[in-house]
Request: fold
Amino acid sequence: MRLSPTCSRSEFASVMALGFALAAQPAAAQMGNPGFMAPGTQIELSGIPAPHQPNNDDRLFVLLVGEGGLAEVALAELAASKASTDSVKDFAKRMRTDHSTANEKLASLAKAAGVDPPTQLNGEHQAMKHDLEGMDVSDFELSYMRGQVVDHQKTAQLLAWEIGAGQEPGLQRFAASVLPTVLDHLSVARGIVDDLSHQQVAATPPPPRKG
Reply:
């Protein structure tokens, strides 16, 4: 699956179907990806790569999803204090809770696999936070929620990518377990964007009549 800032309805449906299918599998289901093995990978008798041997896809996954998770928490804390609409405030509180938990789990799995997880916001997310801090409430809420739609689309695609291309079973299971939650976040964020957009249109006075 290609990685892009947004995904089409068909791509989104495919990711959602994958997420719920994987969520229904037993937690102990065998994972590991012999199709994308790094050189020198040790193999178990079953033919699956042994644990704690991340390939390059695993390492990039930890970096990108780790950076995104840190940004989710930082922006959620900003939204919880700055937003005035209940749905936005409630969404921000949920993001702070859900992504804090996921960040801790990802960091633990990454370290066990010998991968250093990111520990601070990257330049892109720092700039995003700075821009949001300077907005008035109405512009902030809509910009924040639109950003959440894009960010959760990216995260859903990254999770699906790790499931298919990763080698470390722990990281793959993490991706499979988190994907349904991320898809639910995305669905809620889209609904809030629709509501805020309609409210903004309704509050905009019509242009003066000519003549």
Observations:
- Helices lie at 9-23, 56-82, 86-112, 123-133, 137-165, 169-203.
- Confidence is low (pLDDT under 50) at residues 1-7, 22-29.
- The chain has six helices and no strands.
- Residues 169-203 form the longest helix (35 residues).
